[in-house]
Amino acid sequence: MPVETYTAYESCTTAVVRLRNGLLETSTHLWERPVLFWVLVALILSGEYWCAGPYSFLRIHDNADSFVPRAIAAKQSLHCAGPSYWWPFMAGGLDRLSQDFSYTQLTTLLFLLLPNWTAYTLVIIAQFLLSGYGTCLLCTDVLQLSRLAATFAGVASSLFVGGLLYMQFGLASFPLVIWALVVVSQNAKPGRRALLISLAGLAYGVTTSLTITLPFALALLILWFLFVTPSTKPRFWALLAVFEIAAVLPHAKTIWALLCNAADSHRANRVFEDIRSVMSTLSSGPSHAIWIFALWAIVFGPLIIRDRRKRYFSLVGLYLFCAFGFVGLNLLKFLASSRLAFGNGFQIDRFYEFAPFFGALATATVIESCLETQISGTANYRRFVWQAAVASLVIFAAATKYDHLKILVSQGNGVYNFESGRIRQLRHGKPHTLADLWRVATVGDETLHPAYMNTYGLETIDGYPNLYSRRFQLFWGNVIDPAVARDRRLWHYFFDWGNRIYLFGSGRKISHFADIARPNLLSLANTKYIISRVPVESSQLECISAPPQPPTTRFAAALRSGLTSGRKDIYVYLNRDWLPRAFVAGNVASFSTLASLNRALAQSDSATLKSTVFLEDSFQSAIVSGIEPGPSHLELLEYSADTLKLFCATTRPAVVVVSNTYSRFWRCRVDGIQRPIVPAYGTFWAISVRPGEHTISFEYRPPYSIL
């Protein structure tokens, strides 16, 4: 080897060794400052979420297609009209708290107080930090694992938790809750324990989701202290009860709202969750790593574990319960379905969200035993185990970031999806006339979701709600019947699950709009504009905005804009036959059942639907007699989320129709006298008025509003 080559090789080797030693020395110093260490870990793991500012990666699934637009719309609504219980931004209107959407939740408060991107980034970084640091503390202080094994568990756990905004901090802070309960019960002064535990419970309550994480976290806390770190002291269990009660208290109004609305909701008849969807969730994204780690722990753990067998098997048992217990839980729910009533709609299998956490702990326990094993060449063996663990985390973290990059390019970021000039030009100020009250519908696919419209302050007839009226589900099923009738899988997706109220597009040019939806019913629902990523052909729709050059591939639009401006691959269509939010009908058609009413709706044109209100026989008694066509005038006096006031003048008895989704908690007064609201067209409002001039006031007054 030439001298020059050897010298260069030696210099490179020396530089690599120095770099490695420097990194080891730096990591040693950082380990002495655990908070700083985990802040840096959180920043690294969440890098794609913040590195490019507002143009950074934005998770679409269950974030940008639901929670983020809802929080942005809440900020706009609060600034314009103040707080409300009714949420008019999706599905024709629904109860806000029944969506587990409270103004007092920490994540919501951050969006209300801070710029949108700043709030989102803070929540994401905090999730990584709380999950990683909390798991590390739990491993070192409670499970008595070494720092290396604890670090592995913290990083592995945060890889799954970080970025799931819909769970807020309920899953990320769960290990910190276990750690705090143990530390406070053992170290705090007896007089302060109950107070500290109560404050911890309240803090956990305002940072977690009632429907997604809280019930499952509280149940798993009991299982943890029964099996993993068992406690037999009655005083400890009393403290745990105090914590759980305190955690539930911030959700008292939400629980009441759910109890009030669940019986009439689309979830009331749901028994089995789709097992395929649960398995898909468990096998997607960064959870791949947790699956492999946990399987490694299950297969090799019994062969290696010596001193921690009981605790190890407890962790594996909790992992298996969370990951696969949904089969048994759903079976029990099915057997008890006749007694559960509307409780059938509760998604009891959400324990699977916690499976990666327990998988990470079980795997860390195995790694700890590997590090403690006394065999020849122990130093090399320990180094191999630790390097293999680190390499596995690096590989899966890199795979996750690669997936995020693909999503960023194909589906866009916050600026791309939430700042489109083509959609923003539709927005108007506070409505002054009925002509200012209208909705939009979106031909949805994986790159365009109805919730995006809420960020522009637009009310939509579609959306992605957690809980909404069963009557509206049947109505929307009628709207999209042309699509679901041809696709049985889509039919089951909507009627068996149904949370996504979409106009399901294929992603290709729609030759006939009537192939995916019934335009007459969209017109009845006050749908003035149709938003689509692909061209739509229909004599009823007029294209008022189109891309200057339609993209030739899925990625073309995003790449052309560089993801630094609002999307331009949007077609906006005006529905020429749209009906106003409120109108006067001079005829009544009565039907014996809701099913026969819906069949008649599908066969009626927009003119018939405007002149004739469709009612079920059971509601006829609430309508005055002698309804007949005649001159009428309807005028908007006041509009807000919880209030609607109209002026009506008619020469004959008539029915006033409002195309808001029916709820029994709306109250109506005609000239100060309370009048019943009955379901019109199966899902909207109808009240009858006598000849003359009237002031009609609607107000949303749910029972829990007294709190």
Give the arrangement of secondary structure elements.
Elements: H1 3-31, H2 34-45, H3 47-50, H4 60-64, H5 67-81, E1 86-87, E2 94-95, H6 106-113, H7 116-142, H8 147-161, H9 174-187, H10 190-206, H11 214-228, H12 234-248, H13 252-262, H14 275-282, H15 287-304, H16 309-324, H17 326-335, H18 337-340, H19 355-372, H20 378-411, H21 414-418, H22 421-424, E3 439-444, H23 470-479, H24 481-484, H25 488-497, E4 503-504, H26 519-524, E5 527-532, E6 541-545, H27 556-561, E7 571-575, E8 582-585, E9 587-591, H28 594-602, H29 606-611, E10 612-616, E11 632-639, E12 643-650, E13 654-658, E14 666-670, E15 673-675, E16 678-680, E17 684-689, E18 692-700
Parallel strand pairs: 3-4, 3-5, 9-10
Antiparallel strand pairs: 1-2, 5-7, 6-7, 8-13, 11-12, 12-18, 13-17, 14-15, 14-18, 16-17
Helix pairs in contact: 2-7, 5-6, 6-7, 7-8, 7-9, 8-19, 8-20, 9-10, 10-12, 11-12, 11-16, 15-16, 15-19, 16-19, 19-20, 23-28
Number of domains: 3
- Rg over CA atoms, rounded to whole Å, is 29 Å
Q: How many beta strands in the DSSP annotation?
A: 18
From the N-terminal CA to the C-terminal CA, the straight-line distance is 84 Å
Number of helices: 29
- Biggest β-sheet: count, sense, barrel? 5 strands, mixed
Name the poorly predicted regions.
282-287
Helix content: 40-55%
What spatial form do the alpha-carbon principal axes imply?
elongated
* Strand-pairing-aware structural class: alpha+beta
Identify the strand order in the major beta sheet.
Answer: 4-3-5-7-6
Mean of residue pLDDT values = 86
Q: Give the percentage of residues in beta strands.
A: 5-15%
